[in-house]
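Attaching the record inline, Q. Sequence:
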Amino acid sequence: MTTDLTAPTATGISHTSEDSAGMDLSVPTDSQLLHGVVLRPPQWELGIQTNRIAQLQSLDSDRAVKVPGVVSCITRGSFVGIVAVQRTQAQQACALLNASWLTPVAASADVQHLTNQAATPGTVHSATRYEWNNHLAADAPDWAIAWHRDNHLTVWVNTKRQAALRQELCALLGLAPEAVRIVQHGQHTQDGLETAVEAALLAWDLHQPVRVQAAYAPAALAVKVEQNQTAASQDLPDRGQWSINALDPRRPSIAGRLCGLDSTSTTGMALQTEYASVPVQKSGSSLVATDSHSYTAATVFAQESHFDEYCENHQLDPVQSRLAQINSDRGQQLLRTVAQQSGWDQAASGPAAKAAGLGRGIAYSHIIDNDRNPPQEVWSVWSVELAVDARSGGLSVSKLTVGHDASHTENAPPTPPETQRALKDRLGKWTQSLLGQAQQGVNSPSEQDKPRPLALPEVQVINSARSLDQPLAWGPGVELPAAAAIANAIYSATGLRIRETPFALPTLSPDPPLTAKRSRRWRNSWLGGLMAAATGALVVAAPWRTSIPPVARVDTSIFSAQAIERGRLVALTGDCMVCHTAPDGQTNAGGLGLDTPFGTIYTTNITPDRETGIGAWSYKAFERAMREGIHRDGKHLYPAFPYTAYAKMSDEDLQSLYAYLMVQPAVSAPNKETQLPFPMNLRPLVAGWNTLFHRDRQAYAPDPEKSPLWNRGAYLVNSSGHCAACHSPRNALGAEKSGKNNFLAGGFADNWEAPALNTLSSSPIPWTEQELFQYLRTGYSPLHGVAAGPMGPVVAGLAQLPEADVQAMAHYLASLNPAAAESKDNQAVLAARLEADSQANQKARLLPGETLFNGACAVCHDSGSGPVLFGARPSLALNSNLHSDHPDNVIQVLMHGITRPAQANLSTMPGFKNSMNDAQMESLLQYMRTRFAPDKPAWNNLRKKIAQIRQQQGHP
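Structure, as predicted:
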């Protein structure tokens, strides 16, 4: 049997080239791929939960197969899918499928099961939610590729369930196990077994590689208990209703069940803890696909944390309470031994210990590991002691006691020997990483910037083997209680209950921020507040400001690696390198000319060069420039530098940005002098501008009524991201127009239109959160177009940010246009209609510009079924720029092309400035507007606008 191949490189992509049979196992290239989309039955999630998945009765695919680019409509039992050249084409065709479904009548056992799980009306008292996040998984949807060739099926996927996947594919397709090759593609997505089965079913008869991407955004595993009123008086803390938003990893995939598979696998882990109940599948949105270990780990984290909360609320000893419920002799003995060896004492977790910042936590698990042969019972107990730093809020584990026991250890597979010391070191490092204590290094030549070694805790390992010569029998089941034990210890030390992993340590600081203390002191003095307001107004309006003395040397040795890396991300969010780097110039050395209605303003050198850069700037001078727009020498900076947005940045981000800039290479590059016409050349007048338009210089304050994701997005968009600087209209004095309707309502920057991001968006298909995320992350949205002009470098920077930050920005921006969320389900249908209308537009066929279009544009932008020749194939019928009231962006792209795409895989586009005259360009634009935006009026003064843009240099 061919084994599973996992050979990811440092970049996380598998480059395994050949197996023993000589078959190329490299991931197929984009030009080889077809794309599949699967039709799910209505309310399929409810059907999964009730074990009554709908069955296909009839299917009309006539309209779907006529969508340009569709290759085939695949049916197998109740499984239905579309394969097309592009994923958007498959989505559009899938939306046009007309299917009728029949939901089976519930069996009596199912009805009884649901009745037992349902709450009696009016008894639900409270609900507690625990989240388990896979910190290694990216925030992008999982994907898989399948290719049936030479009597073998090859699947590229990220999954820990290779055995279950191979078994299911063999059952569905009648294959021998050795005919299935499973290749880990190396990207850290969510578990991809579901998409792998779908890709295999779609690719089976086509003999071409088919890629399937999950239609849902990844989500954390969430385990929830709904406590009813009667539970409060019971002895057991779990007498509520436990639910989990995940597909049962022991059951076949959804596609497999639609094809008729309905067996329950005996693989994976089965929870046996006596006082814990198995959660039922339940979700208000999407059920998460996951592996057995993560499924069980999330359950243990939730239930062991909840048990500890119950004991705390009822003043019970968590060890004795567990012992009273455990029926297993080996489990009881292990828990007693760990408690004794760790010096467990309830008094050590009382008020005195909490006041000293000390805490202890314990957690227990009992499972059956069915992946062993024979299945193996595993007991595990973790006891954690930790301390919290009262000043920084940082946590450190001081002592760790781990106990484990397992049945059938004599049959355990041979494992490489591991010394007791090596095991303890590994456990200590792993535990500290759960707390976020592991330092991540960045590229830096300085020795002091290298990560410091972790302070490892004292570790005890207790192995309840029956004889000394038995193997250690260490496995993933042993680590299940770790997170709950740490969370329980954190609560013991701080009084804060953390119900989400990984633990968000910055929230643990017991002392309020200094700014909060200062604000309270000022609030306590009415006179002080009045004086502060008056003084602030005078300072802002002052046409002169004092200079801040230069520093002799900035000591960069005090900057930690974490602070420098954080500063790099802040710089990427704020596009520092984009604006402060001239064409063919050195990074951050300035000299880029910014075209404004008042003249050209040149950016300055922000490298740590003492003479021409900011090398002599103290942090105080740097902060003043960022928050107030004042140079170190006291002169006012022009508001082309978006200090009105940067003022909202947090102190931590500003300090990290300062650290990052100061460790970059110093470049001696004299600044170009900005020469604006009178009276704009008088910098003291900016003081009056600040009085009118820069009154709020405080850091962003979160909205307590909004979610953390929304607040994070709002912070990034409105501070370092300074999106409104381009995407909001400006008044005659160059300030952003005030008022809710003007916020992100569209503007112009560097001779390009920055479209509206609110309800005034002219996009033919409303922007959803998912489309915004894909566009901001990759520079391309199939339903809107490609990032170009000034937006290209922005996306290139965002691509390096944590995906969670980009997701937060998309979430916040989507909230500004709630109508988009309402139209989400109709997007594919609307896209298909727009494409069809553009193909059938007879009025456009009569225009002279069609010949120009066919010669210059159709080879890349025609929505036919031919292959994608260069990168993406943006649909012009869906392009937001063609539907805009302003032709500027379309002219810019046609004239100057796209020479530096946001991502390399998007390829470039040639410009036609030197091959088309103004009349030809006008004819082409009229044709494109008429054909692809037939509901929009013709653009006015096209010839004049074309002539103006022809004189411009164009954006690189």
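The chain has a mean pLDDT of 77. The longest helix spans residues 292-313.

More tomorrow.
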